[in-house]
Amino acid sequence: MSEERVGVYICHCGTNIAGTVDVEDVARWAGEQPHVVVARDYKFMCSSLGQELIEKDIKEFGLTRVVVASCSPHMHEKTFRGACERAGLNPFLFEMANIREQDSWATNDRKAATQKAKALVKAAIERVIHHEPLDPLQVEINSSTLIVGGGIAGITAALELANAGYHVYLVEREPSIGGHMAQLDKTFPTLDCSACILTPKMVEVDQHPNITLLSYSEVEKVEGHLGDFTVTVRKKARHVIEDLCTGCGECERRCPKRVIDNSFEAGLGFRKAIYRPFPQAVPKYPVIDTDNCLWFQIGKCRVCERFCPTGAIDYEQQDELLEIKVGNIILATGYKLFDPRRIPQYGYGRLANVFTSLEFERMVNAAGPTGGRIVLRDGETEPKSVAIIHCVGSRDRNYNEYCSKVCCMYSLKFAHLVHERLPEAEVYNFYIDIRTPGKGYEEFYHRLLEEGTHFIRGRVAEVTDAARQPGEEGKLIVQVEDTLIGKQRRIPVDMVILSAGLEAQPDAREVAQKFGLGCDANGFFVERHPKLDPVATMTDGVFIAGTCQGPRDIPDTVAQGAAAAARIASLISQRVVQMEPVRAHIDEDLCSGCRICNDLCPYNAIVYHEDRQVSEVITALCQGCGACVAACPSGAITEAHFTDEQIMSEIEGILWDVRPQGAHEAALA
Amino acid sequence: MSDNAYEPVIVGFLCNWCSYRAADLAGTSRLHYAPNMRVVRVMCSARVDPQFVLKALREGADGVLIAGCHPGECHYVEGNIKTLRRYELLKHMLTQFGIEPERVQLVWASASEGNVLAKAVDRMTEQLRALGPLRWQETVVQQDKRPVSTDAVVEEVDRG
Amino acid sequence: MRYGYYPGCSLERNAIAYHQSAVAVAPQLGIELNEIDDWNCCGATEYSSIDLIPAYALIARNLALAEQQQDENGGQLVAPCSACFLNLSKADHYMAEAPDLAEKVNDALSAGGLHYDPGSIQVRHLLDVIVNDVGYDAIKAKVSKPLSGLRVAPYYGCLIVRPGYQAFDDPEYPTSLDKLMRVLGAEVVDYPLKTHCCGGHMTQISRPTALELIRRLLKNAADYEADAIVTVCPMCQLNLDAFQADVNRFFGTDFHIPVLYFTQLIGVALNISPVELGFGKEFVDARPALDKIGTGSPPTGRRRRSREKGLPMPTMSEEG
Questions:
Q1: A625/B43 CB distance under 8 A
Q2: Average pLDDT in the A263-276 region?
């Protein structure tokens, strides 16, 4: 170790670091530290010139270790490891000191920042001396992919990968794929018919030879890692034999049990106890809703069985557990609409003519419960005035602080549809701000202004049917402060539409844990990097797409679905990828066979050999968390690249300026 | 930081997946917080051997901050729960040494919670300023409260 | 369950029916109310806008007494009056939040040999105690004369849930009184103005303003064909009841809606005699409404629309 030759490079990052840290001083000081052969500061270490500097020095000075003090290792560790490798140095003989994100950007105090930078550099020097050359792990990539969620994000991703020639398992919880997009009437701002552009893609999924569609199924268990996941899928019993069913729909017509459809029709329409969510459903097979089916509930009926021309009904059918092997996973599990019952002063659920946005989507849809007619809850009366309330459950500290991104645009679309269908009706949009960034979006807003929509700026206080004046009798009154004129207003209308925001799925955290992801405070899945890596996650081989990552509209969702597919296609085409060799290893000579580590491992990667009375880590299963390392009473377990020696040295280095020299030896004595 | 005023030094053990990224995010968002924490990155808070904490305190740190993912969100399923168990025991032991409980803290910060981590560092720095320097020599060694091996206790916890 | 009882001034005079009914139902619900010895006025709604320190000292004296008499109240102080409840919890809240205020207040209290440590007494409204400590199930089990056939409009007023120092219900749309009335067997009308202001002391300052506020409340209850308005506050009861005739004269309306305390209706459901519950003291005669109990005559006109026709209504959680 004494003969190690260390090169230290302090990055200015323009003024990002140099503005707060005295980089010249740090470099000068670093040059005086033991083992350091060369120390430099440079404007941009990550530039090709910066990297060449390292490569040149390695060769010229015979460096055996390299330290770069710059940004977070999550940003450029790979870059500098590459430089070392090109100069013939094992990439793991490199260490990075994070003096940007965790130093210069976190304070204005130049003196303190410079002192902290020195401590971080010293820690890196002390640590890197103890580094060992390592070889990255090689992982073969299974070319099949699991996609969870059959909305437009999952459909897009599945088709991209399938068309590239790779196999896809598409798992969907509901009886049909299509997701929320299948429920929508028109899409903004072009007013394309949503179903018309979606259903061809659904059919393509159904017929694609490379796609195995597992609808009415859920993922039970996920094991393994990038390249080699084993996934258990529960295929719920449809009580319909798919091989026999022709999708004729006779069972649905004959079923005597009518149920409010809270799923596809958003509670506004009905379905039967045996049903397909909608006529273009993919796959075409119906399912029996056992909670409502008379046979399952009271043991009478069996009408569907009697009328099925192919004998496809099977009341005895059981759930099936399928085990599939895939190399990568995409989660595209979508969103849940904010439940406006949580804001009782808006009256949803109490006042008949208050509707959610999703209910309204179904109402204006020609295939919906009213055949596209805009009517009040009585099913007959056309409203003469409609209020559309923006930001319901969004931009509100009491519910969700974030903007749901799509509500402004769909509210404008609703206003347009009301004008189109009911030209005499007055339409009021109550908004906080109109947010219409996007191609053609602002133009759509201007179009609505010209169509005569009333825009009232203010958050609605309440929707009530308590009339004060004769003109309010029998109406819903929207009470609002119009912030542009600074007055309280009461606007009587016939119908209120609540533009509810987008929320994470209620089981998002559970799903995240199953797949080893994190959720943000709102329950949306956390991406690897918010700017540069929005579809990857911190778990290699697991990608995310669409609204499960955050609120977004259809074009963005489609782009993410395709992006996730492209990332996976690139991994598959590499066949073998390299992974960090950060893994635990047990020295059998030191192992006392106490088995403490056995139960600590969350991956069951540690096996115990009865014969030799020692434990062993199965490298392929180990994920390198180090829990066992910290627990081993004999110090028999080491974690590559995070050894006790490396971390202890790092601690010594990081405290170089406050260490009680000599005193600690006394303490140890 | 004036030349004479006492400024505590905190060693932060941050897990690679949540809290280290929270610290990165705090910087990226230019959330200014006390520059008193110096970070050692570990893959998981469960990798933090109690010996690391003792080592840091012995080598001159005035406090140690361990940060991990929120319970239920651990990248390694439940490493942070193991950390929590060890932490409680370690604190118990440190108290017996005469070390104030504020000197070793455990916080949860997800990758999106730069503000949570920054606030924790600010709060801890304030607390340590109020407590003053640790003075390991006087507190632990000279009063002959020096640590015995922690392995025995750790073993106990991990068995449980 | 033992509590300190702070009746407040109005329960000794205009709202004596509230006091009588509260005292009558408490033992049946397992509540022991021990009146704070030597309590004084809370200053009502006006005093705190005149001079803050004496106002808080006036309130805190009661808290200090309650703290002294903890043996009798277990650290819990119940106020049936919403204004008293708000004042007591407000003083406790701000004394805890601002130590210098607490110091000044305690300075004043020390003149009488008293001291109050903020946070040591938990201030509760009687409604909170009944629905949360006794609980709906326990009350339901004790109902011997269900209020079936009686349509009530639950009126919370503005002081009980806002600003929420001791929030026990949704400040925008509380439902605890609704549930309680349902448990007693009454039919509860949706009452959108349930937290709107009754006008308070505005009756003494700007009569037309107050009468309009009262009119709205009465009209809304009448629109829903409520037989009675049920209140939790003496001020609300006074305004809606005593000024109902004035409203009728002023606006040419014809409202006859009795305004009752929730404790009176609990008493009726527990089959306590009306005299014990203070009935007969109200201006608008409650007898026609009470006569409906057990009859269940279906009202007509403006009711919630039937769900048989048209589009289905969204389900509410309570309805399952």
A1: yes
A2: 95
Residue A98 shares a structural domain with residue A130: yes
pLDDT tens figures, A47-74: 999 999 999 999 999 999 999 999 999 9
Q: Which of B26, B112, B136 sits opposite A520 (nearest CB)?
A: B112
What mean pLDDT do residues A199-206 have? 97
- What's the confidence (pLDDT) of residue A325? 98
Min CA distance, A665 vs chain C (Å)? 49
Correct CATH for C143-290 of 1.10.760.10, 3.40.50.11810, 3.40.50.1820, 3.40.50.300: 3.40.50.11810
The minimal CB distance from A344 to the residues C172, C309, C312 is found for: C172
**A contact residues 545-604, partner B, Cβ 8 Å cutoff:** 582, 594, 596, 600, 602-603
In the predicted structure, residue C244 carries a pLDDT above the cut 60: yes
Q: What is the CATH number of the domain that holds A52?
A: 3.40.50
Q: What is the pLDDT of residue C161?
A: 87
Looking at residue A261, its amino acid is D
Nearest chain B Cα to A510, which residue?
Answer: B72
CATH class label, B10-159: alpha beta
pLDDT of C22 reads 97
Secondary structure of chain C in the HEC alphabet? CEEEECCCHHHHCCCHHHHHHHHHHCHHHCCEEEECCCCCCCCCCCHHHCCHHHHHHHHHHHHHHHHHCHHHHCCEEEECCHHHHHHHHHHHHHHHHCHHHHHHHHHHHHCCCCCCCCCCCEEEEHHHHHHHHHHHHHHHHHCCCCCCCCEEEEECCCCCCCCCCCCCCCCCCCCHHHHHHHHCCCEECCCCCCCCCCCCCHHHHCHHHHHHHHHHHHHHHHHCCCCEEEECCHHHHHHHHHCHHHHHHHHCCCCCCCEEEHHHHHHHHCCCCCCCCCCCCCCCCCHHHHCCCCCCCCCCCCCCCCCCCCCCCCCCHHHC
Domain coordinates in residue numbering, chain C: 2-125, 143-290
Range of the structural domain that residue A614 is part of: 584-639
Q: Of B1, B50, B82, which is closest to A111 when you measure between CB atoms?
A: B1
Task: Tell which of B10, B20, B24 to mutate to test the A interface (max A CBs under 10 Å).
Answer: B24
The tally of domains found in chain A comes to: 5
- Is the pair B, C in contact (3+ CB pairs within 8 Å)? no
Q: What tens digit of pLDDT does each residue of B124-158 get?
A: 999 999 999 998 877 777 766 555 555 665 666 66
- What chains are in contact with A, requiring at least 3 Cβ pairs below 8 Å? B, C
- The interface residues of chain B toward chain A in range 84-113, judged by CB-CB distance below 8 A, are 86, 110-113
Q: Does the domain at residues C2-125 carry the CATH identifier 1.10.490.10?
A: no
Shortest CA gap A379–chain C (Å): 4
Cβ contact C172–A369 (<8 Å): no
Q: Are residues A221 and A117 in the same domain?
A: no
Nearest CB among C216, C220, C305 relative to A378 is that of C305
Interface residue B136 vs chain A (CB under 8 A): yes
Q: What is the CA radius of gyration of chain A?
A: 31
Comparing A342-356, C108-122, C299-313, the range with the smallest average pLDDT is C299-313
